[in-house]
């Protein structure tokens, strides 16, 4: 009986591990773009976004941590960093504005209790 219980526990553990490994990155053509969904090793979504046909990042890309919490929202135009990117770290929100793929401005906010503090001049 002990052997049967041990065998069932091992089989269940193996099936759980195999289920986590089944998540593979997906790439789907949508018009002129390729929609990408990339996964963490634990099966949670790591990033979503688009590529051009020549493999350059395009449009909005969103990154998530291993728990599914949003970490960053980025913007690309034909592989170049553009617009305002937003980064999240706990109670801190940071916005980085790009111009010609170079950092033009950085703004940081911190939420403390019910107040929001910013470093913007």
From TrEMBL:
Pfam hit, one: MORN_2
Keyword Signal found: yes
Keyword Transferase in annotation: yes
Signal sequence coordinates: 1-19
This protein's UniProt keywords: Signal, Transferase
Record-level Gene Ontology MF annotations: transferase activity
InterPro entries tied to this protein: MORN_2 (IPR011652)
Domain of life: Bacteria
Name the record gives this protein: Nicotinic acid mononucleotide adenyltransferase
């Amino acid at each position: 009986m002990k052997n049967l219980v041990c065998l069932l526990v091992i089989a269940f553990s193996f099936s759980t591990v195999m289920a986590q490994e089944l998540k593979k990155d997906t790439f789907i053509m949508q018009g002129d773009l390729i929609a990408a969904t990339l996964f963490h090793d634990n099966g949670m979504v790591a990033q979503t976004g688009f590529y051009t046909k020549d493999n350059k990042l395009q449009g909005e890309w969103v990154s998530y941590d291993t728990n599914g919490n949003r970490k960053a929202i980025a913007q690309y135009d034909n592989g170049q960093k553009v617009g305002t990117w937003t980064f999240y770290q706990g109670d801190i929100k940071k916005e980085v504005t790009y111009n010609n793929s170079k950092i033009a401005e950085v703004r940081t906010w911190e939420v403390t209790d019910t107040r929001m503090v910013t470093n913007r001049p």
